[in-house]
Write a structure and sequence with these properties.
The complex is a heterodimer of chains A (258) and B (277). By secondary structure, chain A is of the alpha/beta class. Chain A is 36% helix and 26% strand. A six-stranded mixed sheet of chain A has the order 6-7-8-3-9-10, sandwiched between helices. A four-stranded antiparallel sheet of chain A has the order 2-1-4-5, covered by helices on one side. In chain A, α3 packs across α4 (119-132), α3 runs parallel beside α5 (149-162) and α5 (149-162) runs parallel beside α6 (179-196). The longest helix of chain A has 18 residues, at 179-196. The radius of gyration of chain A is 19 Å and the shape is globular. The model of chain A has no long low-confidence stretch (mean pLDDT 91). Chain B is mostly helical and 277 residues long. Helices cover 79% and strands 0% of the residues of chain B. Chain B is built from eleven helices and no strands. Chain B has helices at 2-28, 30-56, 63-97, 100-104, 110-140, 149-171, 173-176, 184-194, 207-215, 217-231, 239-270. The N and C termini of chain B lie far apart (41 Å). Classes of the chains: A alpha/beta (258), B mainly alpha (277). The interface between A and B is medium-sized, with 37 and 33 residues.
């Protein structure tokens, strides 16, 4: 059984240009996307802004309803069995969203309760997990708004890991981080995979990150998955020397344009 | 059996988590909450002074009784405002902080999530209402020797079940309109109280509004609290107010959950379950 099984997944949004009386139009965000992710695998999805990466992550997070196709996480239908899927999945996105006045420990407690962890359990577990992501112990009770973006992203990783997800959805987790924080986050993603046998779906527009972390790479363009293979096979298939060239050959545009 | 008790435990921990988070937020925003409370006291005083004003302009009224009647109206007005505000924050605040996606993708049932917000709203609202009542009553040196506070409190708590149901309906509005939805809590509060005799007997309302008063839980809450505090009516005499409240609650809570469920489906279909709206 695949960890993630997606078949002909389609998502459209209704948009109105301007005032209330203007006609509505349908915009296709994902167009019949199909792929599988094996247990323990890391699949990177590369694409420009607006290519449908975040829509894909939000569909698998049970935050959107689809217009067609299917999506399953360990055999559970994302749209008809959302609670089962929610127990298996967690995510880290580009925005490390927290209650800004609350501390890292308070934010993590709030998240942990929804996964059935009692105050007694989180009291020991939260300091452990924050230590593992390299978060300084003396800043645990400081409001999140006082922390740098890199620090906040570490707490976001701790939040995802705290719930022991078997599928981790990463939506541009290192965008906007300084090089050192970026490397720390990437090292931690490797550790999660090794230690927890977690399956990772990494959406990014960072080619080097995709190549460094993923077993296979998919290229999403205009809501369509135009290529899916290992980095080496993609380069070979498009006769490209680099992944960047392969991306250009597959989509007709540069990734940096994003 | 074991599975269901584990599931019940999980739901209980989740509910406690929602309450706990709100306690953390109150602690962090305590000075803002105190400033808002001062505004509520000032607002209550402007209403309660009306009784003194009527007497000063030659009106023949029982000032103690009218002052207490107005004060109960002002307290219920403030209480209802807090209930609706906190329930509407279920979506509004989380959207503003950006945590909405994480909370709505957690394995937490929506009824438990909403009840958690409701339980905190009632606890916080009752403490705030008691303080407001005590401060304004002391300010006017009201004679409340015969008051039965326990029966008044029971009526308010039972009415809160219905208020929670209506609050769940208003909570969905920021999902549909992120920009304007929050304000609808105030509209519900105003409409509910105007037909419920907040500062006057329901009999003075036009007939159509009196019909609405029959289905408004605030009518029974106000009447029961006034009977308890003004007339010293005990629990035994409160049944006439409590059974309609239980009946209205049995309708508004499932209705509120269903309205929220449909709103969540709408938001998921149109991609509104996210920070920016």
């Amino acid at each position: 059984m695949s960890a993630v099984h997606v078949r002909d997944l389609r998502k459209e949004f209704v948009r109105r240009d301007g005032g209330f009386l203007r006609p509505r139009r349908r915009v296709v965000a994902l167009n019949d996307v199909s792929f599988d992710v094996a247990r323990g695998e890391c699949l990177a999805i590369l694409g420009q802004n607006g290519s449908g990466k975040s829509t894909l992550v939000r569909l698998l997070s049970t935050l959107l309803l689809h217009e067609g196709g299917s999506a399953e996480v360990f055999g559970h239908d994302v749209f008809t069995e959302p609670r089962e899927v929610r127990r298996l999945v967690n995510r880290v996105s580009v925005e490390a969203s927290f209650f800004k006045k609350l501390s890292a420990a308070e934010n993590l407690s709030y998240a942990a309760r929804f996964y059935g962890m009692t105050a007694g359990e989180t009291r020991s577990h939260i300091p452990e997990i924050l230590e593992r992501v390299g978060f300084p112990a003396d800043r645990r009770t400081e409001p999140m708004e006082n922390l740098s973006r890199g620090m906040q992203q570490k707490v976001a990783l701790a939040r995802a890991l705290l719930t022991q997800p078997v599928v981790l959805l990463l939506d541009e987790p290192t965008t906007g981080l300084d090089p050192r924080s970026k490397l720390e986050v990437q090292a931690f993603i490797r550790e999660i995979r090794a230690a927890h046998d977690a399956t990772v779906l990494l959406c990014t527009h960072d080619l080097a990150e995709a190549e460094a972390l993923a077993d296979r790479i998919g290229i999403l363009d205009g809501g369509e998955l135009v290529a899916l293979d290992t980095a080496e096979a993609l380069k070979e298939g498009y006769g490209a020397a680099t992944l960047e060239e392969a991306f250009f050959a597959a989509t007709g545009h540069e990734l940096e344009a994003a | 059996m074991r599975g269901s008790s584990l599931s019940f435990r999980h739901e209980f921990i989740s509910l406690a988590g929602v309450v706990e988070r709100n306690v953390y937020l109150v602690r962090r925003y305590i000075w803002w909450d105190l400033a808002f409370f001062l505004w509520t006291v000032a607002n209550a005083l402007t209403i309660v002074f009306i009784a003194k004003g009527v007497e000063a302009t030659g009106g023949k009224i029982d000032v103690n009784r009218v002052t207490t009647t107005l004060l109960i109206g002002a307290v219920v007005w403030a209480y209802l405002g807090i209930i609706f505000e906190i329930l509407t924050e279920t979506v509004g605040w989380e959207r503003w902080e950006g945590t909405i996606e994480y909370t709505f993708m957690a394995p937490l049932s929506r009824p438990v999530h909403l009840f958690g917000m409701g339980v905190f709203a009632v606890l916080y609202g009752v403490v705030r209402a008691a303080l407001l009542f005590g401060i304004v009553a002391a300010f006017f040196r009201l004679d409340l020797a015969g008051a039965d506070y326990a029966s008044a409190l029971v009526v308010l708590v039972v009415a809160s079940i219905s208020f929670m149901g209506i609050g769940m309906m208003t909570a969905v509005l920021p999902l549909i309109s992120p920009e304007k939805g929050m304000q609808f809590g105030f509209i519900a509060q105003g409409v509910l109280l105007v037909v419920s005799g907040v500062y006057y007997p329901v009999d003075v309302l036009p007939q159509a509004m009196q019909w609405l008063a029959v289905i408004s839980p605030a009518t029974y809450a106000l009447r029961g609290m006034r009977e308890g505090i003004l007339d010293g009516a005990g629990m035994g005499a409160m049944w006439d107010e409590i059974w309609p409240l239980l009946l209205i609650g049995a309708v508004t809570v499932p209705l509120g959950l269903e309205v929220f469920r449909r709103g969540e489906i709408h938001a998921k279909r149109h991609g509104k379950l996210k920070r920016s709206g």
